[in-house]
Design brief:
Elements lengths: L7 E4 L6 E4 L1 H4 L5 E4 L5 H12 L4 E4 L4 E6 L7 H7 L8 E3 L5 H5 L5 H10 L4 E6 L14 E5 L4 H10 L3 E5 L16 H4 L4 E4 L8 E5 L3 H6 L6 E5 L4 H7 L12
Length: 255
């Protein structure tokens, strides 16, 4: 994980209050757009510095371009709602680095949810579970849940690993616009509000297209709470149902 940078105090244009801003972030301005590549370590470091200061960035995922903050550094997702002009009643999902994050941030996570995560993560599947006590209240949904996903994108996973926290992430578009699958589709007005914007050339699978019902019968048979899930892209529901078949139910050790 990237070592924490020393931070200084200065007025921040992204909110009505002051924020801790890394000196490295100050050198790039608030409208920097960086082309990401394997050799572009400095750009990635600037993005991690911004996240570590609690600032929002734009970055690619496997589904669409995302707008996110580091959960352990930002006190709430308020800035994301502000930038997107989004309804505050809509919770923001977290991007995580491994399936074990379900148990780390979820409360009484059922075996079914863990099996699904170990089978389909990294990938476009979002799992919704009861939020654990270590999930800050401002990041929880009104019903006390948290949505988690492990993206299948090397840049996004690199950011998560280096900053050391999940990234609370929503699509990088103004509310009502289409989620951007290409960097060129991002509204310039949104880009002006972030400290760093990264891009890559990887194809994006698209925004959520299906909301799947929880496997309530399967979970009830095991006396467990049922996870919810949201599918992004063309993932067939039959593949999810296959994971939820009756015992044997041993998917531990899968990717």
């Amino acid at each position: 994980m990237l070592a924490r940078h020393r931070v200084v105090r200065r007025p921040c244009r992204f909110s009505n209050s002051e924020a801790d801003v890394d000196p490295l972030v100050q050198t790039i301005g608030c409208d920097a757009i960086m082309e990401y590549g394997e050799t572009n370590e400095r750009d990635l470091t600037k993005a991690v510095a911004a996240l570590s200061a609690g600032l929002p960035i734009v970055f690619p995922t496997d589904t669409v371009y995302g707008l996110g903050v580091a959960v352990g550094m930002a006190q709430s997702p308020e800035i994301l709602y502000d930038i997107k002009q989004r309804d505050h009643g809509k919770p923001v999902a977290w991007l995580v680095g491994n399936p074990e994050a379900l148990s780390l941030y979820g409360k009484v996570v059922p075996d079914l949810a863990l099996a699904i995560a170990r089978t389909f993560w990294p990938g476009p599947l979002t799992l919704v579970v009861k939020a654990g006590t270590n999930v800050p209240v401002p990041f929880r949904a009104p019903n006390g849940t948290i949505a988690l996903r492990m993206p299948d994108n090397g840049l996004a996973l690199n950011l998560i690993e280096r900053v050391g926290f999940p990234l609370a992430t929503t699509s990088a578009n103004i509310s009502g616009q289409m989620p951007p699958r290409m960097f060129e589709d991002i509204d310039p007005a949104l880009l002006e509000r972030v400290s760093v914007a990264l891009r890559d050339d990887a194809e994006k699978s698209g925004s959520p297209v299906r909301v799947g019902r929880p496997f309530r019968e399967r979970a009830a048979a095991r006396d467990e709470p049922a996870p919810g899930f949201v599918e992004h892209g063309p993932r067939p529901s039959c593949a999810l149902r296959a994971v939820a078949r009756p015992p044997p139910f041993a998917y531990h050790g899968m990717r």
